[in-house]
Amino acid sequence: MRVLAAMSGGVDSAVAAARAVDAGHDVTGVHLALSRAGGTLRAGSRGCCTVEDALDARRAADRLGIPFYVWDFSERFRDDVVEDFVSEYRAGRTPNPCMRCNERIKFAAVLEKALDLGFDAVCTGHYALVREGRDGLELHRAHDAAKDQSYVLGVLTAGQLAHTLFPLGETPSKALVRAEAEARGLSVASKPDSHDICFIPDGDTRGWLAERVGAERGQILDQSGEVVGDHDGAHAFTVGQRRGLRLGVPAADGKPRFVLEVRPVSNTVVVGPKEALATSEIAGARFSWAGAPALAAGEESACDVQIRAHADPVPARARLVDEHDGARVVVRPDIPLDGVAPGQTAVLYRGTRVLGQFTIDRTVSAAPVGV
């Protein structure tokens, strides 16, 4: 099988490519250039897809004896991921750029180009599993729960799963991957993991957004509408945030207050008690299934819902409903979710299997009236 190995320059993708070679596949390595900013080098262990990463990926490919190329996806990445991130924050929503990158770049644009060039599959270093199920291919959690990345892969469709390889999915731990890289003589064996948002390598999301969205002073309100503080731009706040609020008026009960709502049109932020963050229902019109459709219109089913990459899954009931503006997935968790923000991604599971995902566009508070 002809396999295109997406090589980020990290240890995971290098070992995944090596395992694809060991499996007897005809492997070609490719690194994605997602930025045209010259001299963009890693700061500590932050970021990915930098000049340094491209060189590391090339060295790994040379060690494995496979062809290697760099594909320029900077314009597509800018339009589909970076600009989407900015526009979502401008609208008062909290986006997940990793989901958008997997959806629109790594498993859409890259896979489409790979298939056009005659490759049979794309191989990545993600920790997840693709298994044959009763109704076709299914996406499952990785064996290593600490490294499982099935949440950010929840956007994959049945067609994409059919052309995807995750060689690390059954590996019990990241330590074993590093040991294998060391044994193979790969120079990235001890390279630190990347983290934070790759296009904000210094980790200063607030400052980065201020340059692009603008910093305009506004008011912080309590639930009654009373002004309790001010801010330098509503875009810098997310639902559930506690730190950095700079409130000038203490709460009557003396307890901490949290961001409950961001209103971009009026440039205001609403704060209140932690209890007011409890959410009894979430819904979204933008959804997809990771394999066979998990719900039919009007059907309700038990599942688990996860709203952050490293959050614990929560038992829930999900249903697909027809509303005036189209179909929408509606989920009612057995235990109220905490700090849900519009724009977040909810991924549905049944056991280890990923059923699908949706972007949250509506929430219902579980807090009593007046809280």
Automatic annotation (TrEMBL):
The keyword Secreted does not apply. GO terms for biological process: tRNA wobble position uridine thiolation. Residues 281-356 form the tRNA-specific 2-thiouridylase MnmA-like C-terminal domain. It is found in: Cytoplasm. It catalyses: S-sulfanyl-L-cysteinyl-[protein] + uridine(34) in tRNA + AH2 + ATP = 2-thiouridine(34) in tRNA + L-cysteinyl-[protein] + A + AMP + diphosphate + H(+). Its EC number is 2.8.1.13. SUPFAM superfamilies: Adenine nucleotide alpha hydrolases-like. This is tRNA-specific 2-thiouridylase MnmA. It comes from Microbacterium limosum.
